[in-house]
Amino acid sequence: MSQSRKASVSRKTKETDITIEINLDGSGKSAIDTGIGFFDHMLDAFSRHSGFDLTVKAVGDLHVDGHHVVEDTGIVLGQAMADALGDKRGIARFGEARIPMDEALAEVAVDISGRSFLVMNADFYSPVIGTYSTQMTKHFFESFVSAAGINMNMKAEGDNDHHKTEALFKAFAYAMKRAAVIEGQEIKSTKGVL
User: What is its EC number (predicted)?
Assistant: First the structure.
């Protein structure tokens, strides 16, 4: 592999201070600290199942709520993903996954297209999982795709919000892993750029 597919991105605002490092050709090692336990668990699952090494250090105004930390982590992760992918030469571009977790089933399809769009169909029954707001699941993925330039369609069904959310993050991991894999030398676009 000729180019390093690693990136480190930091973003500091009045609300958050976040640094993320990613290695797309890693082994799924992670060090995650956002101050939101369930969110840490989801990001760890994403790293483990994608095979991307991921370090996330996020400090923010959790005394308000977790909104800014989750949103800004999505932004920085998207920026790091875009940086690590570089010109996207040789990547598979498309990836999909169907992941069950007990009664829940999640499906995710991604296109690393350079264009951001999210469609997500998942209903949650509880306002929170631990201290993590279930409303933030969609917002995290909106922030990620917007910063990364990725088109993603997601859906989840099931009775347990923990299971649905975790299945979504794991399906996200496998879909991204499959889309980001190097399988040739060409840019997979009739335009010649992604």
Answer: 4.2.1.19
pTM (2 decimals)?
A: 0.97
Residue whose C-alpha is closest to residue 56's, from 46, 65, 86: 46
Q: Nearest-CA neighbor of 125 among 145, 143, 103?
A: 103
Largest CA distance in the chain: 49
Pairing state of beta strands 53-60 and 16-23?
A: antiparallel
The number of CA neighbours under 13 Å toward the Cβ of 76 is 27
- Which has the closest alpha carbon to 2: 81, 89, 78, 79? 89
The DSSP output letter for 161 is: H
Size of the chain in residues: 194
May I ask the CATH class of domain 6-180? alpha beta
Percentage of the chain beyond pLDDT 70 is 99
Residue 133: beta bridge partners? 128
Contact call for residues 122 and 154 (beta carbons, < 8 A)? yes
Residue with tokens 């979504």: 168
pLDDT at 189 over 90: yes
Residue 144 carries which side chain, given as an amino acid letter?
F
Give residues with Cβ within 8 angstroms of 105, minimum separation 6: 98, 99, 156, 157, 158, 167
Q: Is 18 helix (H, G, I), strand (E, B) or coil?
A: strand
Q: How far apart are CA 51 and CA 54, in angstroms?
A: 9
